[in-house]
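Project standup — Tuesday

K.O.: blocked on the structure for the chain from last sprint. Re-posting the sequence here as requested.
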Amino acid sequence: MEKGELSVNELVLIGVGGILGAGFFLASGIAIRTAGPIVILNYAVSAFIMSQVFYALSQMIVYKPVEGSFRVYAEEALGDIGGFFSGWLYWTAGVFIMSSEVTASAIFTKYWFPKTPLWIFVLLYSILVIGINLMGTKNFGQIESWFSTIKIVALFIIVLVGLLTLTGFFVKSSAIGIKNLYAHGGFAPHGVKGFLGAMLMSLIPFGGVEVVAMSSVKTKNPQKYTPIARKYIVLFLTTLYILSITLLLLIIPWNHISIKESPFIKLLYFTKIPFIDSIMNFVILTAALTTMNGAMYAVTQVLYSLGQGRFAPTFLTKKTKRDVPIYALLLSSLGLFIAVILSYVLPKDVYEYITSATGFVQFFNWIIILYTFIKYKPIMEEKSPNSDNRSQYFVNPWITIALIAITLLSTLFVPKQRIGFIGGIALLLIILTLYIAAKKLELFDKW
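H.V.: unblocked you, prediction finished:
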């Protein structure tokens, strides 16, 4: 399948599908209980971080649209260690994300079929996503567009219900209003520690911009469409995330929100719509499946790129007639089947274990992307001195790197998130060890 198959609208919807997952609908409750109403600021900071990473990516894509995207830029700007680290770290993060989302999908489905073992749904959804990715880029784009549309409509409905409830359309209550932002312990009831403790959970719903980078090369005009898609995706998600969270907190006191279910289900109860819990459960299930589908596409593409760049065996570059890197897809699928095994062995704890390991790896890779941009910008300016690449950053990327580092370090103060930090550091050391070993054995030249 050749370049030029995705429209700018499909790229936007793929981006929304890759970013808007179960993390927003579920993790928002954890973030709210950790921080209190100041969580609104958490989401604003997270939106800023995401916009800066996305800006850096789109600038490099405009300069040089290429399969493999940020991994290729990291190799050019930072050398072999940059290409190796960026590619394998993102692949690992993507596998974690897929495992997390497929497990979440299974948990949501058990809401309707409580007696069915978790691993059966994990297996079925794994096969479904592998099948979708085997169909090729064009079908992938169409399916992601449909899934994303469902989630977009759901977010608009949440905002609409929130606005109508706030104005007294569904219920008239003196307990609803701006006082909920300060009446229950203040705007920041848990202080700075609570704010920092909620940063990871507020940033996770913004993760996934790399899917757009991987998909942009398949559009009709990557250099034109990528900046357009970035602007729409950042504006859309930032506005709806912050608006929906703010409305939620104005209507329901932060200390009444449960961490065991999506807080938006409680918001939608005000509508008195029959089966609203099942409807919302379906939406969250769709969100999880779409994110998993987008992650599978992205990790397959980056593994294919690693094979092209000498950092993985060349057989991973073999494609089918539908332009699908078949062996890269099959190797990436191993992560899903590990999730099947874990869901069989540890059905009660598997989601928390997998998710806690995702955030650190994913956002450390954002640091690599930003550092790549810092080193890559002189290359862009030297070869294209009159292009838009000479424009200044929105903000110095070092500030964004510092914010991400603070977010990752803040997980040490939250016991349930600490395992992700420790596991992430261990993973970085493993990848570094593999790089050193591959260098000594001269595998890069043999591959």
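K.O.: great, moving the ticket to review. Residues 8-446 form a domain with the Amino acid/polyamine transporter I fold (CATH 1.20.1740.10). The longest helix spans residues 276-308.
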